[in-house]
């Protein structure tokens, strides 16, 4: 199975990338426990910023961006993580999904997550990120993971789970969706399909 994590973190090191890695690891562990063989790829949008801008202007993706788009659209499940900018997802995050065909992610299992400096922005996942992926007709897991600066290393309290528990729960939900998703059949090559049709012809 192919799991792809998309990180829109801009700094190095990045808490957004760290959260993407932790979530991908959790999903991978859950799938491995189910007996699945999993490959994990992380797509860092920071390195693709110029390519994304060029694609928006020209309509043609440079090779690195085309490879990233292919990885995302060919995945069996996605982890998507954005930093919070002005109470919403980042422009880089949105621009990347703007250059993907709107129908290419239909039915894709998605785990949505975000990072920010304060817990006040935690609802960004519900009022911005989740609607974006609903528009793309993906299947977003119930647990969205928001990590504020204070959440790292926190075990939570009697009213709320800590970040590690939320990561485990969300990872389990995405793994379950991926495991239950029917295996996709790649379309036959056009030339091969034509050859088969000709071979099936019978002449008297």
Automatic annotation (TrEMBL):
A single GO molecular-function term is: oxidoreductase activity
Keywords (A to Z) from UniProt: Flavoprotein, FMN, Oxidoreductase
User: What positions does the domain NADPH-dependent FMN reductase-like occupy?
Assistant: 1-151
Q: Does the keyword Oxidoreductase apply?
A: yes
| InterPro entries linked | CE1759_FMN_reduct, Flavoprotein-like_sf, FMN_Rdtase-like_dom, NAD(P)H-dep_FMN_reductase
Fetch the SUPFAM superfamilies from UniProt. Answer: Flavoproteins
Name-wise, this protein is FMN reductase
């Amino acid at each position: 199975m192919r799991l792809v994590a998309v990180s829109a973190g801009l700094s190095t090191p990045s808490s957004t990338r760290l959260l993407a890695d932790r979530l991908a690891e959790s999903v991978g562990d859950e799938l491995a426990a189910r007996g699945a063989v999993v490959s994990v790829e992380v797509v860092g949008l920071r390195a693709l910023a110029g390519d994304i801008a060029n694609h928006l202007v020209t309509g043609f993706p440079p090779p690195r961006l085309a490879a990233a788009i292919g990885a995302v659209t060919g995945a069996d499940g996605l982890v998507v993580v954005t930093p919070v900018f002005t109470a919403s997802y980042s422009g880089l995050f949105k621009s990347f999904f703007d250059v993907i065909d709107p129908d290419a992610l239909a039915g894709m299992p998605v785990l949505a997550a975000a990072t920010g400096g304060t817990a006040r922005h935690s609802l960004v996942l519900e009022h911005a990120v989740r609607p974006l992926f609903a528009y793309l007709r993906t299947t977003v897991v119930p647990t969205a993971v928001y990590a504020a600066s204070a959440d790292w290393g926190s075990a939570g309290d009697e009213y709320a789970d800590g970040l590690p528990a939320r990561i485990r729960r969300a990872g389990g939900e995405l793994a379950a969706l991926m495991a239950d998703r029917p295996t996709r059949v790649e379309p036959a090559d056009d030339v091969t399909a034509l050859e088969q049709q000709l071979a099936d012809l019978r002449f008297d």
